[in-house]
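At this stage, I put together a protein sequence along with its fold in token form, as given directly below:
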Amino acid sequence: MRLRLGLLAVCLALILWPLGALAQSVRLLRDADIEHGLSELARPVLSASGLNPARVPILVVDDSGFNAFVIDQRAIFVNYGLILKAESPEMLQAVIAHEAAHITNGHIGRRGQNLRSANSAAGFGTALALLAAAAGAGEAAAGIAFGTQSSALRNFLSHTRAEEASADRTAIGVLSLAGINPKGMLELHQIFAGQELIGSSRQDPYMRSHPLTRDRIRAAEAYVASAGEGPATRPEAAYWLARVKGKLSAFVRAPNWSEKRLSSETYADLKLMRAAVSAHRRNQFATAAREMQALLAAHPQDAYYHELWGQILYENRRWSEAMAAFGRAASLAPKEPLILASLGRAQLAADQPKAALETMERARGLDFRNAILLRDMSLAYAQTNQTGMAALVTAERYALQGRLKDAGPHAKRAVQLLANGSPAWRRAEDVLIAFEQDEKRKKK
């Protein structure tokens, strides 16, 4: 499943335990517009939690189940299924507040020790692989694979009942401090009421990693009751939830599902956006173009709508037009690495490798872990006869994927071709050393 059609996905291997059974793949859906909307919803929550919203992105997992989790303090992961099922902004914000509480309350501290002691195949260490989980791929369909046994991953993500109760208390306080109605926490708990009576194999993944008790539900009920009516839903929060859900559903649901719901769409711009995506997915370019032109005429300063138009043009092989659309998006959001990566890809497709490299370097400066960007950069370096740099970024891409066996030969070639002692040479040396250490580990 993918959000963006025709674009390649990347698998970044995160091996926390040795593989002994069929690995479970967990993929991220990356999209600048969706992540921007989630950041708007998360900002007041994270700020009230004492976290820097710019440093804790909300990342969407390609899973229809109802779940959310944190691995370390660098990101909060939320299944797209949870987002689509969120009935109010407060409910999604309660999830974010709860996961943020696991960070601020120190519940993930023991995971850091687990990671440091894990038998990892990622030569940069699991910490770098975890950072790669937050990597932008320049398009919404980028994926990440957690190459670990599903039971091990579930155990790694699980919290104790005491931690859950503690996170609830902290989250409710954070929501109140942020001026958000805590009723979302109660709505969340009510979904899972009674699941503790079901066998673990049949429980929702959220229930298995976030054990729920009647005491937790009663505590949330008591707090919400004492808070009274509470603040009303903020209009901007309602809009961003609708926008995130609108774009997600437009790509992950069948086109006819979206089309049946267009008449009930509250926001005019989201109606146009969803209609354009539906037409694009049906390969009806003229219709998609008409909807997008109406959308851009009404919202000419929206970088993310220009990016969507660029995507549609790119996937219809209209390179020059796509480059212009992505360029407009980048001028409106110059620090958005996913948009810059898309612009660089369009420039490369339009036979402008030098311009593409300049743009891609800017994108990588904002997000050095973008594996698909590295793939594009290797092509651009090769086309500009910079074979040493092409070998380097290829080695780094494989390393981020956990494929050190593939990274090693490219790193060795880069070391041979790059100026001895240069910054690029040292980067290649880092990958080569990681490869050699991993080979030694395997022989033990």
